[in-house]
């Protein structure tokens, strides 16, 4: 159905348990990360900033 709309969805990222724990911890500390902090967390977890 979504292919009829011309939009393709990117695959969902499967986070590891460790990544989820850290992402949840960061979210509890601050719901919105600055760009430098987002880069830092992504690098630490071996993810892209978008993920």
Automatic annotation (TrEMBL):
All residue ranges annotated as the Homeobox domain in the record: 6-51
Give the GO biological process terms: central nervous system development; neuron projection morphogenesis
UniProt keyword annotation of Transmembrane present:
no
Per the record, its GO cellular-component terms are: nucleus
> Which domain of life, per UniProt?
Eukaryota
Q: Where in the cell is it found?
A: Nucleus
GO MF entry, a single one: sequence-specific double-stranded DNA binding
Cite the entry's keywords alphabetically: DNA-binding, Homeobox, Nucleus
Its recorded name reads Homeobox domain-containing protein
Native organism: Capitella teleta
The upper taxonomy is: Eukaryota, Metazoa, Spiralia, Lophotrochozoa, Annelida
């Amino acid at each position: 159905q979504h292919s009829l709309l011309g939009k393709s969805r990117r695959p969902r990222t499967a986070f590891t348990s460790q990544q989820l724990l850290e992402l949840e911890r960061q979210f509890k500390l601050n719901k919105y990360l600055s760009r430098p902090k987002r880069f830092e967390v992504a690098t630490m977890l071996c993810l892209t900033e978008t993920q």
